[in-house]
Design goal:
Alpha/beta knot; about 220 residues; Trp Operon Repressor, Chain A; 9 helices; two-stranded antiparallel sheet; five-stranded parallel β-sheet; 2 domains
């Protein structure tokens, strides 16, 4: 997979990609991540990439020309499955979207900043708009990191045990059951006996029942969907 991230602040994203699963995925060449700064495509001698809003209003807006030049250059080199704009008013990220994106080959992630991007960027180039929640961040960089993490871990071969991702919360529409490891007893709290029984069928049934109960209690909206 190839992910090209358009951002004014690539340094905000370098840290999350230098450790843990994403780093291993990059080192093992399961994914390649590239940063592209719109300032490098500005025709202004001051490398300006933002300007005041037409019609007035607080906050600056990212200009269309630097972003357009960047996207056009990227598209001249390869075909992209999606050009994704990270924005609070996009569709809310969920496991289904991450599963779908993990099957793509080439993605562009566009990180907004200030008040966002000129609407014409969205009209002309963006194929999908995604939000990570009903709140506003200073820019799309942290959202891009979240999306990359949720996608990359699903690429076959990235996790040591590929079945691990299949048992994650939301994969089957339910919250995952509780998990335990050694010791079997700690300060009077014991691991459920069923998990020590060695009976896989009974354990699977217990986990399913607990998942349903947890979901009913904590996220009943998932059951409605």
């Amino acid at each position: 997979m190839n992910i090209d991230i358009i951002t004014l602040f690539p340094e905000l994203l370098e840290g999350p990609f230098r450790a843990s699963i994403i780093k291993r995925a990059i080192d093992s060449k399961y994914v390649k991540i590239n940063f592209h700064n719109p300032r490098d495509y500005s025709s202004n001698k001051y490398k300006q990439v933002d300007d005041y809003q037409y019609g007035g209003g607080a906050g600056m807006v990212m200009m269309i020309e630097p972003i357009a030049k960047c996207i056009k250059k990227l598209k001249s080199k390869k075909q992209y499955d999606e050009v994704i704009y990270l924005t609070p008013d996009g569709e809310k990220l969920n496991q289904s979207i991450s599963n779908d994106m993990s099957n793509k080959k080439n993605l562009i992630l566009l990180c907004g900043h200030y008040k966002g991007v000129d609407q014409r960027v969205r009209d002309l180039f963006v194929t999908r708009e995604i939000s990570i929640g009903d709140f506003v961040l200073s820019g799309g960089e942290l959202a891009a990191a979240v999306i990359c993490d949720s996608i990359i871990r699903l690429i076959p071969g990235v996790l040591g045990n590929e079945c691990s991702a299949l048992s994650d919360t939301f994969q089957d529409g339910l919250l995952a059951p509780p998990i335990y490891t050694r010791p079997s007893e700690y300060e009077g709290l014991n691991v459920p006996e069923i998990l020590l029984s060695g009976d896989k069928n009974k354990i699977d049934l217990w986990r399913e029942q607990i998942s349903i109960e947890r979901t009913k209690k904590n996220r009943p909206d998932l059951l409605k969907n």
